[in-house]
Amino acid sequence: MELYSDEYFMNEALKEAQKAFEEDEIPVGAVIVANNKIIARAHNYTQRLNDVTAHAEMQAITSAANFIGGKYLNDCTLYVTLEPCLMCAGALYWSHITKIVYGTSDEKKGYTKINQCVLHPKTIVMKGVLESQSAQLLKDFFLAKRL
């Protein structure tokens, strides 16, 4: 795997998703990258914080903004294992993030199912990077919940 490739950074997001899995959170992980450097890492904290807004993307946006010292994530890329929901897509719109790369689509709650125009018009979106790994982690989590 090439260093600084989309696959490299998505693997880092998958590591965050695995942490969420181990903490009994829905296994979604995210990293934000600027100049080939990870400036924020996060995973879901909705159970731990008892907060429906504590999605991996929201945590990563806050962390990256604190790292940068400003609210706009220009020239940054978000790598997230699951397609952002409408709430997260709205936050990403306001952050002016340059690029979003996600692993697997969210057939029920992903932003593309509701409105494909919710992101900033200049935001580049790439989907399907390490899709099978991202999807399998979610399947394993929910299968374990049903047992």
Summarize the structure.
This protein has 147 residues and is of the alpha/beta class.
Question: What would you note in describing this structure?
Answer:
The protein is of the alpha/beta class. The chain has six helices and five strands. It has a five-stranded mixed beta sheet. α1 packs parallel to α6. The chain starts with 5 loop residues before the first helix and ends with a helix.
Keywords:
147 residues, alpha/beta, five-stranded mixed sheet, 5 strands, 44% helix, 20% strand, globular
Q: Level of helix content?
A: 40-55%
Structural class: alpha/beta
Total helices: the number is 6
Strand tally is: 5
Computed over alpha carbons, the radius of gyration is 14 Å
Give the mean pLDDT.
Answer: 94
Q: Sheet bearing the most strands, described?
A: 5 strands, mixed
Strand content: 15-25%
Q: State the distance separating the first and last CA atoms.
A: 36 Å
- Major sheet: order of its strands? 2-1-3-4-5
Shape, principal axes of CA atoms: globular
Question: What is the chain-wise order of helices and strands?
Answer: HEEHHEHEHEH
What kind of oligomer do you see?
single chain
Poorly predicted runs: none
